[in-house]
User: Fold ABC transporter ATP-binding protein from Streptomyces evansiae.
Amino acid sequence: MNTGTAQARDGEVVCAVRELVKTYPALRGRRGQPPAPAVRATDGVDLDVRRGEIFGLLGPNGAGKSTLVRQLTGLMRPDAGSIHLLGHDLVRHPERAARLLAYLGQESTALDELTVSLAVETTGRLRGMDAAAVRTAREAILGELGLTALAARPLKKLSGGQRRLACFAAALVGDRSVLVLDEPTTGMDPVARRAVWAAVDRRREEHGVTVLLVTHNVIEAETVLDRVAVLEAGRIIACDTPSGLKSRVAHEVRLDLVWRERAPLDVPEVAALRASATESGRRWTLRLAPDEARAAVSAVTGGAAFLALDDFTLTTPSLEDVYLSLGGSTKGLVKA
Ligand SMILES: Nc1ncnc2c1ncn2[C@@H]1O[C@H](COP(=O)(O)OP(=O)(O)OP(=O)(O)O)[C@@H](O)[C@H]1O
Assistant:
């Protein structure tokens, strides 16, 4: 997937964000509910996304990804800061976003009553295509995504994954040069996921399409992204290629130990490991230097501890490890 990286690294900036701030106001408590404090959902965000890049926003629930995307797509006005997309000032002219980019949000309610075919056609017409061009594009996109057999079905009568794919089909019509996709593959099976990433890759290769992708799936992020901004509490805590980010924690490996019932704390080597372990039920997760990890593995697989051990895995760092080492909290990052 990363063939466009070099081109993207040196390419023209299509989206430049500076010092973006958005605070949701505090809410007074009503009917016995406690008041909610103000939330600074975007807290001084700077970003440069380049042409042809698949750029990710990764972060746990509540990190501010959707708020940032709503501002980038002209749906929400920031309190401060600037957004320039393809040379247009979107803070001054948020209405221009709709003709510059295609946005696939998390909700599909606007299209739910339409058939798959009509959802794609209607989106194409709204984007200014004539009837003949829309029909040609519809046939091509539905065929490309394996949706032709579902063309006559209303979206509300599709499964969650199929509906998501149909909404993705609608996002593709009209050949926008920037695609903003908020968790596009949620609920999709592997075949549909592959169809989405193949369609994205084709447009990037053939037309230099730029993709801004919101995800909290670290595996998908590592596979498809050229660069990723890691968001935590409204701030970007790191921004690099997935491998660049991972090299920051290359000095560590991750050791997962799963005990049959409980850890044998009477074994001194196990008791000693506990201080550096994160415990989750029967699982201990440790981040260790490679030689420490080797010593730990031989301690738990060699002696009395082995009888209490159900499973163990030794893995090189993932984006999740980077995120943790940057001070993030694991909650909300999806690993499967
Ligand atoms: N309309 C709103 N009013 C008040 N606070 C809000 C509102 N929308 C979001 N927030 C808060 O702003 C913060 C950022 O929310 P946002 O939805 O942008 O996060 P997110 O990273 O997209 O999360 P998720 O992965 O769950 O979609 C959270 O603390 C959230 O509770």
